[in-house]
Amino acid sequence: MNYNFNEIEKKWQDHWAKQQTFKAKNTSDLPKYYVLDMFPYPSGAGLHVGHPLGYIASDIYARYKRHKGFNVLHPQGYDSFGLPAEQYAIQTGQHPAVTTEENIKTYRRQLDQIGFSFDWSREVRTSDPSYYKWTQWIFIQLFESWYNIDSNRAESIDTLISVFTAEGNAKVNAVCDDAISLFSAADWNSFSSKEQQEILLKYRLTYLAETEVNWCPALGTVLANDEIVNGVSERGGHAVMRKKMTQWSMRISAYAERLLKGLDQIDWTDSLKESQRNWIGKSVGATVKFKVIPNDTASVEGELHQIPVFTTRPDTIFGVSFMTLAPEHDLVSQITTDDHKAEVEAYIKATAKRSERDRIADVKTITGAFTGAYAEHPFTKEPIPVWIGDYVLAGYGTGAVMSVPCGDQRDYDFAKHFNIPIPNIFEGIDISEEAYGAKDNVIIANSDFLNGLSYKEATKKAIVALEKLEQGEGKTNYRLRGAVFSRQRYWGEPFPVYYVNDMPQMIAKEHLPIRLPEIEKYLPTETGEPPLGRADVWAWCTETNTVVANTKVNNTTIFPLELNTMPGWAGSSWYFFRYMDAQNDAVFASENALNYWESVDLYIGGSEHATGHLLYSRFWVKFLKDRGFVKIEEPFKKLINQGMILGTSAFMYRLSYIYINESEIDETGTEFLFKLKNIYISSSESLNNNEFQSNIDYLGKLKSTLKEIAGLSNNNNLEDLTIIPLPIHVKVQYVNASNELDIPGLKNDSEFGEDYKNAIFISDDGGIISLDGDSSDVFKVSREVEKMSKSKYNVVNPDQIVTDYGADSLRLYEMFLGPLEQAKPWNTAGITGVHGFLKKLWKLYMGEDGLNITEATPTKDNLKTLHKTIKKVEEDIESFSFNTSVSTFMIAVNELIAQKCTSKEILEPFLVLLSPYAPHITEELWHQLGHQHSISTTPFPEFDAQHLVESSKNYPISFNGKMKFTLELPMEMQKEDIEKTVMAHEKTIAHLEGRTPKKVIIIPGKIVNIVG
RNA sequence: GCUCAAGUGGCGGAAUUGGUAGACGCGCUGGAUUCAAAAUCCAGUUCUUCGGAGUGCGGGUUCGAUUCCCGCCUUGAGUACCA
Questions:
Q1: Strand partners, A531
Q2: Which nucleotides of strand B lie within 7 A of protein CB?
Q3: Can you name the CATH fold of A31-128+568-641?
Q4: Domain range summary for chain A, segments of one domain joined by +
Q5: Which GO terms describe its biological process (predicted)?
Q6: Is the dihedral of CA A391, A396, A398, A399 positive or negative?
Q7: Which of A192, A740, A784, A899 has the fewest Cβ atoms surrounding its Cβ within 10 A?
Q8: Over the stretch A22-69, which tens digit does the pLDDT of each residue have?
Q9: Is any atom of nucleic acid chain B found less than 7 Å from the CB of residue A616?
Q10: Surface-to-core class of residue A697, CB atoms within 10 Å of its CB (0-12 exposed, 13-18 middle, 19+ buried)
Q11: ∠A161-A164-A166 over CA atoms, to 5°?
């Protein structure tokens, strides 16, 4: 019987689906275990081999935990709102729901054929109204909450209203907007409803605010910081500008400290925790207000200008020799003196063109301008020059720095460059070459009342003195800011919000979900409103509590609805709870389900979510806990980032040309160059080594070929023509293992074939490649390892691999590639190794005419092989070292074949060990062995150490630490006897060549090392 | 610039507490089988001037270092000069 993997895999996938083998129960006496993959977005391109890597790892773990007696929850679903479907809709007019449905079908088919043990009965989709009903509900809860710093948790907005009614806001200690004026209970009660709502909005955890956003006119949308690369949109590379816009935001900063502290409680990698810490960006220091000394422009009557700065080093305040403002700082125009105006304005203009990224990374170029204004030092009252410099960013801190050149390298470089004094305030420290940035072991000097103090003491004392002057106070700063929650897009959750008098009102819970309206086109409106502005039926009737036609808006009973939709992170911030009770219509998940499953025990996904999804969902979970909806503080106990699978891209070189002397193109002119378009040259060693331009022989041949192509028959040998080969990505499916391009295939490509119809391909020897069948010419491409992505045309689709080798081979191979967390290149050719292993395994169990298993008593060697495999595989899975366990299986099968093992007592438990990795073949053999129940719930074999006890040890005998030969000695042999035996051995004597060793190191059971 | 990873044969990688470097697999070479091919099986495969050398480079600790320490180089990922 042959190993017919296609038949076997289909059979068991169908069987598992029919029997609901992997359906998880919400009530069980077994301990629970929750294994989750990061929410996939169902893109139109389908899966490539990089996607299932994490899914396979989590599936192995989930299956292993079932063998270990756990009730395992291992669900899957789709984060199905998103920009790609919307962009496709804009291009084709197809409703995003339709394309999303198609994409999900493709995903599901691809996932199913890999044999995952998902409980599909719990599938969720964020774009499904029965799901986003609860996303809307959570949004309403956030709106109806404020953060009480005294109780350190979110509370219902009602508790805040009752405080306002009783005593005003003087004693309220809340996370809220910066500019809130004080009011008494009497004030509050006399405010109009609109005034009250405006005030409450400044306290709510989600609120409307005029915020500066990254507006991308070309995409008609706002972009998150991480969607902008080098100042342009990541998608499409369009220009991005700062623009004020009314946006929904989330007061995530209220949770900054808890988000930081919580990291200590969870089992994530240090690098991931570190990036969250950096993102939250806690710094302890002080705010200091510097008064601007009046000058020709900065002498407004009555009020003096102040420059507030935040510093982590208030102890160095006597080292301030200048101040630096971000060029965009509001005060710049108000304080710059007339004679510096021209210079400052020119500098601001120049800065605006630099991307923020550029300003950050480039430390070598020091630029700045003096405003002509001076600020007053709070203690010495000396004038301090105020500069602007683009190393200070407007968006961070206060957008201004008190520059202490002796203590900060950037300030130091700036001062050196502009000849600003660098006062030294550190005792006994040389600052003639560079600044001294360390906080440890400094003694402050030249600093009046701070002299002789350490960093800690001086900081404390400086803050006290600043507070006395009312020019500063101690402050903890977080860089985490309000998270923008609006998107000017169609394909997202609609807000359950309508507007009365411009004030947002929540729609009551019982009327949810508010469904996305139908629109004709998916673009923003001509007036710049979001796509929902195109909907005709998008108004809220407060009498019928339904969505009605816009024409009915009367602003008394019928009101306009919100036009923005929610961002991608809305639905993904809580989905892990929905899996616990996916069909519940009354609550987002029942209390029983929430209590049973608690939180995710193992979460596997890409590191790209480090500061987005993983921070936002922690925030929502903490909020839901505060409001009593869940009991947990952290959603993901253990988290593993799988590494990227890299693709091997292929390049061919398109020729482009430069004429050194244009006047010499006389007789043929531009027509000549026109005829030389769309020509590609085969990759060669000289191309890969950047020696193309010096390969005279080849260039000569190439040029005569070009003349031939252009129909040029004169003697011009094109000396003035410089040929520049440009690398162009080519789809890897048209390239074989020897890097040869399938030219006819490329020309028939449905997507790009047209572009190459008239292309000319030139071989290694400089001649045109003939495309009639019997030509032996080859066209070679260059290879490079890059991120696997559709845009680089290097994706490898798992479908073909499953057809050719089977899902079990794919699963094993993906694990075999290397450590889960590390990035690694994909090479399909290597899959024959694991596939060959499965064939050998099959032959071990199945003879020519059926099962090859006997009741034979296992030999000592059989037992040793089995038990060392049990031990190793169990250790490997527990430590997520899946690659090494695949090797272990191979070694075990090689050994069992060598031992000619047929013993059921060995071969049966071995199947269980392997089944998490290769579930189909093991399930088939398990049933061939006569079992009626699925192998998936069979207990994991128990390791028994007695089978690994050895009676002898093959000692490595080293000389000066270098192993020279080995010697088999009894295990129980004592040190002295070992030394005697080794020293008497002929090989030892030969190696010593008569020398007497200085020392002999013997570690019984390990090694012998002879020194000297 | 800063932060975090990672550098081991032709390639992916292994060596879990400092103890036989290169397990396992790919590829390659030779052989068996076959009319032939595929498939399968067997043997070999770090380099080498055959003394040795060797885990990015230079030091150090140790009887012994891929593993620990110091300094550097390169590559990748992230990034917000948090003042």
A1: none
A2: 1, 3-6, 11-16, 19-21, 23-27, 39-41, 53, 63-65, 76-83
A3: Rossmann fold (3.40.50)
A4: 31-128+568-641, 206-250, 282-478, 494-562, 647-787, 798-947, 952-1011
A5: leucyl-tRNA aminoacylation
A6: positive
A7: A192
A8: 999 998 999 999 999 999 888 887 888 888 999 999 999 999 999 999
A9: no
A10: exposed
A11: 110
Cβ neighbours for A942, distance < 8 A, ≥ 6 positions apart = A870
Asked whether residue A557, judged by its CB, lies under 7 Å from any atom of the DNA or RNA strand B, the reply is: no
Kindly determine whether the C-beta of residue A785 is less than 7 Å away from any atom of nucleic acid strand B.
no
CATH topology of domain A282-478: Isoleucyl-tRNA Synthetase; domain 2 (3.90.740)
Strand B within 7 Å of which CB atoms in A 479-498?
A: 479-480
pLDDT for res A44: 81
A753 CB neighbours strand B below 7 A: no
- The reply to whether A274 has its C-beta less than 7 Å from any atom of strand B is yes
What Å distances lie between residue A913 and A23, A148, A842, CA to CA? 22, 53, 15
Q: Which one has a higher pLDDT value, A612 or A859?
A: A859
Superfamily of domain A798-947: Isoleucyl-tRNA Synthetase; Domain 1 (1.10.730.10)
Write down the mean pLDDT value for chain A. 85
Nucleotide in closest CA–C1' contact with A404: B83
Query: Residue A342 pLDDT more than 80?
Result: yes
Q: How far does the CA of A338 sit from the C1' of B60, in Å? A: 62
* Per-residue pLDDT tens over the stretch A822-831: 888 888 888 9
What's the ipTM?
0.92
Asked if the model's pLDDT at residue A810 lies above 70, the reply is yes
> Does residue A358 approach strand B to less than 7 Å at its CB?
no
Helical ranges in A40-146 per DSSP H: 52-67, 83-92, 96-112, 129-143
Asked whether the bond before A294 is cis by omega within 30 degrees of 0, the reply is no
pLDDT digits (tens, 9 = 90+) for A370-390: 999 999 999 999 999 999 988
- Phi/psi at A48 (5° precision): -115, 170
- Residue A343 CA and nucleotide B48 C1' are separated, in Å, by 68
